[in-house]
């Protein structure tokens, strides 16, 4: 009986404290969290802005097929046009990622492929990166390629226009196992 009264009193006190917190002034000004360029991509609990995370993704050369025929290899020139360093380590590293999309632009596979950046990319710098798209999951579709800050978001959320390659189709005889680009031309092998 004594324990029930203590528990009841504890719950009542907790409810009063919680309700008084709800009635506190809502006019308090709280500054949004910001991150220094050094902390971006390293697990920072920072407000993400388009100014920090912006990139340009351009096709470098033409897509090719891996020697074993299992991947479509696309090399891109990734330019950092944001204000933050594209970090490669930490809790929220930045990688190059790809979605497969249908003819209407609907995402079919959100996490089609990932490729690590070769090193951090400072603002106003760029790097060439190859990403290997699994052929079996890419045939019949196009691929959108763009950076992703893991555990945070894809760069198109902050204004980056994805590079779209494809659609890719099977061409030639089944024995040849060739993969063709949007124009019907067979991709070269490594």
Walk me through the topology:
Layout: H1 2-22, E1 55-59, E2 64-65, E3 71-80, E4 94-101, E5 107-116, E6 126-134, H2 135-138, E7 142-149, E8 153-154, E9 163-165, E10 169-171, E11 178-180
Antiparallel strand pairs: 1-3, 2-3, 3-6, 4-5, 4-7, 7-8, 7-9, 10-11
3D structure, described in words:
The chain contains 2 helices and 11 strands. The protein is mainly beta. It has a domain at 55-180: Immunoglobulin-like (Sandwich), CATH 2.60.40. The longest helix is centred in the first third of the chain and has 21 residues, at 2-22. 28% of the residues are buried. The model is unreliable at 1-46 (pLDDT under 50).
Task: Name the CATH class of the domain at 55-180.
Answer: Mainly Beta
State the shape: elongated
**Average predicted confidence as pLDDT:** 79
The major β-sheet equals: 5 strands, antiparallel
Q: How far is it from the N-terminal to the C-terminal residue, by CA?
A: 79 Å
Fraction of residues in helix? 10-25%
Fill in the keyword field for this structure:
190 residues, five-stranded antiparallel beta sheet, four-stranded antiparallel beta sheet, 2 helices
How would you summarize what this structure contains?
With 190 residues, this protein is mainly beta.
């Amino acid at each position: 009986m004594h324990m029930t009264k203590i528990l009841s009193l504890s719950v009542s006190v907790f409810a009063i404290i919680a309700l008084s917190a709800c009635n506190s002034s809502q006019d308090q000004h709280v500054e949004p969290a910001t991150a220094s360029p050094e902390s971006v991509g390293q697990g920072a609990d920072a407000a993400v802005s388009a100014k920090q995370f912006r990139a340009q993704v351009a096709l470098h050369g033409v897509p090719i097929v891996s020697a074993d025929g299992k991947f479509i290899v696309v090399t891109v020139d990734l330019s950092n046009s944001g204000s933050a360093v594209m970090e490669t380590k930490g809790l929220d590293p930045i990688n190059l990622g790809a979605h497969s999309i249908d003819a209407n632009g609907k995402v079919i596979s959100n996490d089609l492929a990932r490729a690590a950046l070769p090193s951090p990319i400072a603002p106003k710098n760029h790097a060439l990166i190859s990403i290997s798209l699994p052929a079996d999951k890419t045939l019949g579709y196009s691929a959108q390629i763009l950076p992703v800050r893991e555990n945070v978001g894809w760069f198109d959320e902050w204004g980056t226009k994805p590079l779209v390659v494809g659609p890719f189709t099977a061409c030639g005889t089944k024995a040849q196992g060739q993969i063709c680009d949007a124009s019907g031309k067979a991709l070269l092998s490594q």
